[in-house]
Write a structure and sequence with these properties.
Helix 2 (55-68) crosses helix 3 (83-94). 48% of the residues are buried. The protein has two domains: 4-53 and 164-341, Rossmann fold (3-Layer(aba) Sandwich), CATH 3.40.50; 56-158, Rossmann fold, CATH 3.40.50.1100. It contains eleven helices and ten strands. A six-stranded mixed beta sheet has the order 1-2-10-7-8-9, sandwiched between helices. The longest helix has 20 residues, at 168-187. By secondary structure, it is α/β, with parallel strands linked by helices. It binds pyridoxal-5'-phosphate.
Length: 343
């Protein structure tokens, strides 16, 4: 098939961290419960690195660059609940590197990700800094990197938030994978030609930006709805930052394509901690578990599903269209955030 992997992205360095393609499964009972369009779930909770998730796709490219630069240790900053940290630790081990995690102030009991960090043999360093003072955490990371360099080590430093933009290649190829799977369904006569709507979580916005890049490189028509997941940002600012990431990636990959604001669509209103938002997310997780036997997490995917359900129920996605819900993983958080899913 022609597409990004046979053109621009095919030549990039990549290590194999994922079991691909992940399944695209039809959620027939969920669709029936909502009385709307057909719904497919892209199961990137099953990417296969540690406990799965979207970040493994980007790390295939980020870690290849680190290996090419002879890095032997990865230092990453983030909060304890960060799936990204967990995937980074697993990816580092898989690539024969050490992982040092600088954890922001939080709940440090040996459960959830803390347990996984330990099992992965990551070195955890606790900071007394919280999310509002990331600059201080990065200064600590720089000091640590210097210390490691003086011992003859070669660290890769990864900040909290977007992974290096090379990782977007993984998400452009994710788009190609989804397109291939939906085309396969069409060829088998199991899907007509509905308009496709992909619902994807947008935290740093990398996954969304990579999907948009993939859509353009593949010349495909579909709507990509990025459900905002970081309450620190408003819609305008977040859309601007997804666009900037997209442009940076397009330039890095020398794709020769240009993007403007119309390429990026984000949905706000699902990232807060208000009781109504939390209960919508908890209801969404329960509905998916009860109809499909698939688990969503409280921080990311249950909120994306809550937005998807609202769009279906109020008719913004007409019944003749089809939905692809991107399951980005994060499921281990159910064990340490069980209260968030109380209904
Ligand atoms: C499980 C999960 N889903 C979605 C996201 C958001 O992805 P992105 O940062 O690419 O927007 C994250 C980010 O940490 C995540 O861990």
């Amino acid at each position: 098939m022609n597409g990004p992997d046979s053109t621009i992205l095919g030549g990039l360095g990549r290590v194999s961290l994922c079991a691909l393609p992940t399944p695209l499964v039809e959620a027939g009972r969920l669709a029936e419960a909502l009385g709307g369009p057909r719904i497919f779930i892209k199961r990137d909770d099953l990417t296969g690195l540690a406990l799965g998730g979207n970040k493994a796709r980007a790390l295939e490219f980020v870690m290849a660059a680190a290996a090419a630069a002879a890095c032997d240790v990865v230092i990453a900053v983030g909060p304890q609940h960060s799936n990204q940290l967990c995937c980074i630790a697993a990816a580092a081990r898989k690539c024969g590197m050490d992982a040092v995690l600088l954890l922001l102030r939080g709940d440090n009991r040996r459960q959830g990700n803390m347990l996984l960090f330990d099992m992965l043999g990551a070195q955890v360093r606790l900071t007394d800094v919280d999310l509002s003072n990331l600059g201080e955490a990065y200064a600590q990371m720089a000091d640590l990197a210097e210390e490691l360099r003086s011992e003859g080590r070669k660290p890769l430093e990864l900040k909290y938030g977007p992974l290096p933009v090379a990782g977007l290649a993984g998400y452009a190829l994710l788009f190609q994978e989804i397109l291939g799977q939906t085309r396969g369904l069409r060829q088998e006569g199991r899907l007509g030609s509905p308009r496709l709507h992909i619902f994807v979580g947008s935290g740093s916005g990398s996954t969304q930006a990579g999907l948009i890049l993939g859509r353009r490189l593949m010349g495909a028509e579909c709507d990509i709805h990025g459900v905002m997941l970081d309450p620190r940002f408003d819609q305008q600012r977040h859309e601007g930052s997804v666009l900037a990431t997209l442009r940076e990636a397009a330039a890095l990959f020398q794709s020769g394509v240009e993007f403007d604001a119309a390429d990026v669509h984000c949905i706000d209103g699902y990232d807060g901690e208000e009781a109504t938002t939390r209960s919508k997310a908890a209801d969404a997780a329960a509905l998916v578990a009860h109809t499909e036997g698939i688990l969503l997490d409280p921080v990311y995917t249950s909120r994306v599903m809550a937005a998807t359900i609202d769009h279906i129920r109020d008719g913004r996605i007409p019944p003749e269209d089809s939905v692809v819900f991107y399951h980005s993983g994060g499921v281990p958080a159910i064990f340490s955030h069980s209260d968030s899913l109380k209904r």
